[in-house]
Specification:
- The structure holds two protein chains of two kinds.
- Chain A is mainly α.
- In chain A, 64% of the residues lie in helices and 0% in strands.
- By secondary structure, chain B is mostly helical.
- Chain B has a two-stranded antiparallel sheet with strand order 1-2.
- The longest helix of chain B is centred in the N-terminal third of the chain and has 25 residues.
- The chains are: A mainly alpha, B mainly alpha.
- At the A-B interface, helix 1, helix 2 and helix 4 of A face helix 2, helix 4, helix 6, helix 7 and helix 9 of B.
Chain lengths: 92, 224
Amino acid sequence: MTGPRPPLDDRAVRSLTMNTQPWLSCDDCFDTVDSRIHELLTEMTAFPEAFHRHLAGCSACSEEARSLAVLVAADYALHPDVALARFEWATR
Amino acid sequence: MVMTVERSSPTRIVRASPGQESEPDEWVLRLRSGGDVAEDATRLLHELMVRGARHQVSRMSASHDLGRFRVEEVVQAAADEATMAVLSRLGTFEGRSKFTTWAYKFAILQTAVEVRRASWRHREVEIALVDDRAPDTWSPESVAVAADFSEAVRTALDHALTAHQRRVAVALIVDGIPIDVLAERLGTTRNALYKTLHDARARLRAALTAGGYLGIPESGEVNP
């Protein structure tokens, strides 16, 4: 690429510089997302650090995990909004 | 235990018997049993996957541009793929969640990937337009003299990463290309791209730390 590049917006700056340690792969995230959501919706268990950091760093995995929480809410006798609130709490 | 489908509006709910959730073991047993029992369980599993796929499509703004016919194609294709994925990985279900929670994640993943790919099918991904500047032609001082943090990040982005790391970081974060789309265009995997991005972030943080913009590295941070 040649020539000046446009300035980075705040969102890009935050995303580029976030700390995503400890490492967790997308595959590992997928393998455990059901149990993490299950524990969150049954016992309000917070996400482990690696899982939390991965969701912060991978928008695709984060959206899919959020979607799962909303989809299965009724199976845990929760309103989808409650499940979503718990997810937001777990990823704050 | 008989598995039935309640035709309640607006969604169908699979239950072992009215008012009771099918135990995870029941799903696995029935799906593995063979004959009519397995066939019926697979049909119910597919209905779950369709429900999951419709749910995911409804959440994605990218699906709005696809048209009703294409959306239905995506839903059915994703549900088919997800059903096969569940059946092929049945042995990995450990009962750490409800079976339906475990199965639904396959539907969500397949659908999300399909929708992203479909919405980007006719869009150019200009990932080649990043020069191959070597990472060792800069110094922390070049970051330290930046006017502000944003400029420092830009400087580090341009100088502290390998060419591949820069391409991936710019494509995913700056240009907002979905990771599945980029993986397909580059002939790689989502996993590999996330690793590249993870390493790029660590390099950027190291450069910004050396330039005085970030504090002492947190435990576990490494400079790949």
